[in-house]
């Protein structure tokens, strides 16, 4: 904070995986102090009861959202399920209009109320806030985020697929109509709800596609791709579940518009030069998801296909860090005036 | 066999994963008797020393290829590395011209010597045999295989990617120039050689693409797709390594040529009706790789994309069974006159 | 069956993992015909909706238990949760006194009503049946099982820990008071109920002990160890969850009573000579759980510790096969007069 | 450093997993500067070629040990294989007698030359140094380590098994003759050498014991247990390989000597009160290995067995952090006068 004191932080929804990842990062953030953690169904418990890895640390007990005094809070992370979030944030701002909010749900990512209604099947409940929200992809919207009161942290699939494509669409270097995104995610992206389909025995030792042709996060892709291209873009996007805890790995198939694959690589290298959390590999190399695991890094690569005019992009993030809570802290750093990398210096764990 | 006796079988290269899978299947095949197992570097050892799961069973000791008396053998499975294979099989036929051979390497899959040289970087050493070999994809070449002396068992990625596409190309239902194949494989497909890159700690808890833009098995895809389309086809193909033992999972992105996605589904359902080892799911459903694990089954599905004219095909096999040793036994059954499903009835293990 | 017809089989609780494993085995059993599958909450669905690996096969639809006509059934497998089972089986026998039952729950494994009440916290609801039930550990109680109407299939931890110890206690070769059993199980043993603690992200990439000092299956261990020793035995037993689908791996620490470790090995080798599903490794060798995965085999080994008088036994099974459904089919084979190994010939999958 | 400058650090053996883990930790250590990284067979390569997760960071190129100028180095981490280490460290001290060394191999852990020779099969090549070396288990030998020139960082199994037992033996609270240690380790503990037995397909989906009755690290256990007990102790110790990357999980079976299990718990809680890296759970609770993954924490628990006089201890660490490189940095912090927790604040990643 400007006055040198620590920022007072609340995490709403601390009992899920993005919530616990926020706590993990914020406990070691030199400028942040955790003053409230909420978890409706687990209110009253200690955080260590819910996530024993926190047993050695001192943390506020879990409470309900109603119990939080937002007047004493500088910034709220909202890691709640879709739809309930809009009401909660509206209420938070009603109680404390000057608080900052970084929202990890999908509720404020789509600027167009019509698009929101199309993808989510109901009208948005906080249209003013929807208009106000900054899209929290720092490398693209850094300036807007700095001034924002409400930041909509983008999804993990979308963060990973937007970053390598936007510079190419902006430059007119690829055909907007033939983009294919084959995305693979680790299991922690599916959350901590007890569902049969997420049991170890259901998802280990195999892979499968899900939400084929209909995944809601395509709305975010369309929005950002279209904005970059200056005209409507609707890529093919298919997510897959992979038996690993963390990681998003997007393989993107593109057709160049005149440009050569080397040109695509140069465009990306130029665009992200100096970015602390984006690393563009040498032309012809692709990353592995494990090379960013546990870190806030995006790694990407460009490879020429054997047929001229076709190229393959690969982009990878840790879905809980750059794909969720790490990016949220990066947004917090901008919003509160901390150095952008503060508390996010962790290097990937491999193995 | 026609006379009711058991077929005498040799497995060359029994110390690798496709070799051990052949032994697993053939030990329970009512018409087969294992009379020779070879493993050059492990000759002299018992099979149970190399694969302890066989300890309870009686099996021939491992010997070198030179020690095998091929005159007493009805059929040879060749599970040796690429390139050495051509010389070995030439020698086998020199010694025993009437023996049948099912080859699991890539050596005899490409009919065009020029294509072989292009993908493998050296001229083929057994051109006559290359001409003679049947491509061992039973569902497409059943009749030719029945009459063949030498069957070239197709690769795991290619088996999985050819079966859902050939009927559509033959029918002119999809655009041959925009096919994208994003294929994912389990680790057993990488074989049993001690390589740093295949250590548990290198490949668990992550995913990555490999041989991007340059995988050799594209030669097989080109050959079969082109034949089906009646003109040259060169799809985009990117394989990925997934932290699981078994499974190939191919997500195929196609553009329809006039047809609707439902038409693609109907074409596949018709083409494979009655096939014992191909199961086409209802329109709109996709399989999971674990639903075929341990079985000789291919499962496939067709889904419409949200944009008209685009469809997503998913196809999955167990890389060691239908993608290698199971299909090899299926080929043996045809070549030796056994019922096609004999010894291949195992149902997928899930979990 | 004696008259050559197929045995008509019902599986109660077909939507769990032991249920689906029974279906997998019985679909390929030459003497069995599946005539009824029940699943209370999923009644009305096709088995393929619940377990897509069965999509290629023809199976009865799932029904409630009330809908089953037991008069047309020869044998019932009961794969239901503890406690409900006793009432269900009582009702089944009331309706069809001549039907045979193989029960996979813990309800009929303890012969002593007092012990049942101690471990399960309530009186047994079917005392007569409890008295009548045979303990379904074939290698020890083969003759009793042949004559039984009701067989209590033992648990997976207990099957794995009883087989290597009973012969040693019977021979007086080890000290009954210092047996330590450190048992490790794969996740499928925890069943298919949607529980947070069984999510992939909760149990992959780690290991932990559970029910330390209080696991209910110790009742079975005590019963069988005490019977073998001829006096009360209460071993230490701690189960652990390992991030794998299948497998029980018990490491047993014993002190010899005069005997040498080699003597323990000889006792086991003699005891299990000729058993189709028990393999005793050479002295000094231990098995790996993957060497029995997917098979009905038990593998065990004996190693001398560095200090005289101490030995280590290792025993391993596939918890869903020899530890549950495979052993249940083995019991069915005895009860119905089929060859004991029928339908259980599958060899372990490795990898 | 006392003068406020950064300590100049060399890592010998940077291409293995403990080496890369040292680099990961030291890159973020405020007091350390990496000035030399060695890897004999990979000399000349960039660290990012060997471990791509370091691509975004600036690091010295890999060189041979001979190329390092030790006169400009304050502390050397030695992460080399057993046996070669003694010669290397002797040479390092010859060249630069004032440098400090933290050795991660087993070479200097045993104080008794006879014991070394017994376990390793050959005489020690640097007897003076062996005598001088401090045993680097900080919580027990903190004062000696502070003054040491050479610290022998203990093994991962031993760190995990020594910490919960030494306080109990010192207090005479448990029987030294009946300790059983069933230890489980993740795969990264087996190192990065390309060995068939460590391939993903060999070690995933299963568990197995190894070095049963003969693991060399028993020498360290004997030494430390005997010292604590004041008389010779030789526990039973069996290590197991578990399909996970990181983690040591030791289940220890003890018999109390008069004491109650609650007393054991109180002894441990008292002994480790205030320790930053040891967390004793409430009586009756046990940790999971994933609750310390990626952190320098040891978590331990004590549970009473159902039979009086028997107790179960569970202790867990991350084998690459507290079990190797994290503890090595903790030792460096003591030796160089940094705060003990500096650079080791990372909280466990779960999931």
TrEMBL record, chains A, B, C, D:
Pathway: Amino-acid biosynthesis; L-arginine biosynthesis; N(2)-acetyl-L-ornithine from L-glutamate: step 3/4. Residues 8-148 form the Semialdehyde dehydrogenase NAD-binding domain. Pfam families: Semialdhyde_dh, Semialdhyde_dhC_1. InterPro entries: AGPR (IPR050085), AGPR_dimerisation_dom (IPR058924), AGPR_type-1 (IPR000706), NAD(P)-bd_dom_sf (IPR036291), Semialdehyde_DH_NAD-bd (IPR000534). Its main location: cytoplasm. GO terms for biological process: L-arginine biosynthetic process. The active site is at 156. It comes from the Bacteria. CDD domains: AGPR_1_C, AGPR_1_N. Its EC number is 1.2.1.38. Keywords: Amino-acid biosynthesis, Arginine biosynthesis, Cytoplasm, NADP, Oxidoreductase. It catalyses: N-acetyl-L-glutamate 5-semialdehyde + phosphate + NADP(+) = N-acetyl-L-glutamyl 5-phosphate + NADPH + H(+). Transmembrane segments: none annotated. HAMAP family: ArgC_type1. Catalyzes the NADPH-dependent reduction of N-acetyl-5-glutamyl phosphate to yield N-acetyl-L-glutamate 5-semialdehyde. Belongs to the NAGSA dehydrogenase family. Type 1 subfamily. This is N-acetyl-gamma-glutamyl-phosphate reductase. It comes from Aquabacter spiritensis.
